[in-house]
UniProtKB/TrEMBL annotation:
A family per Pfam: Hexapep
Protein name in the entry: Acetyltransferase-like isoleucine patch superfamily enzyme
InterPro entries documented for this protein: Hexapep (IPR001451), Hexapep_transf_CS (IPR018357), Hexapeptide_acetyltransf (IPR051159), Trimer_LpxA-like_sf (IPR011004)
Record SUPFAM superfamilies: Trimeric LpxA-like enzymes
Top-rank taxon, per record: Bacteria
Family label: Belongs to the transferase hexapeptide repeat family.
Gene Ontology cellular-component terms listed: cytosol
GO MF, any single term: O-acyltransferase activity
Keywords (A to Z) from UniProt: Acyltransferase, Repeat, Transferase
């Protein structure tokens, strides 16, 4: 079985996901207005959002956004700066000692390109980030991407392809690929 997912909108699976998104949106709304010094309140809300306690040494500065939460896998000593978004329905894994700059986005879901299909289906694939990776401010990681150990994703980069270990990737220029 492939890691790619295709979910029919107007299905029971999609409705269950939509219900979870509403619950998690309420929880992250509460999380993002807590006083920062309320560590126990943040820990309790993160446990409800993620379905388990945060691993040892994980630091997350609010505001923090996720749409599902249950498929966000954080290893120990992960650092997530302010205003990051994790659309994790298809799964996101951040390895040990990953650092994420402010306003980074990890997007595991989308829609088919075909205009007739995009209102009928939700597509997605997991994101896997290996150990000791640095994701720069405002970077966007797209569905199905794997980022190798010790890699650096530059600020503002849009990552649509796998990143080899111990490499630097840059760039965010949009390019017309095809027309219809």
């Amino acid at each position: 079985m492939s890691d790619d997912r295709l979910i029919r909108i107007h299905s029971a699976e999609f409705q269950a996901m939509a219900d979870r998104v509403l619950r998690v949106t309420e929880l992250t709304s509460r999380l993002n207005v807590l006083p920062f010094e309320d560590g126990s309140g943040r820990a309790e809300l993160f446990e409800r959002i993620l379905g388990k306690p945060l691993p040892a040494g994980v630091t997350i500065y609010p505001p923090f956004y996720t749409d599902h939460g249950l498929r966000l896998d954080l290893a120990e000593r992960v650092f997530i700066n302010q205003n990051c978004t994790f659309l994790d329905y298809a799964g996101i894994r951040l390895g040990d000692r990953v650092m994420v700059g402010p306003k980074a986005a990890f997007i595991t879901v989308g829609h088919p390109v075909d205009p007739e299909e995009r209102r009928e289906w939700l597509s997605g694939a997991p994101i896997d980030v290996a150990e000791n990776v640095w994701i720069g401010a405002g970077a966007t990681i797209l569905p199905g991407v794997s980022i190798g150990r010790d890699a650096v994703v530059a600020a503002g980069a849009v990552v649509a392809d796998d990143v080899p270990p111990a490499s630097l990737v840059t760039g965010g220029k949009a390019t017309v690929r095809r027309r219809w």
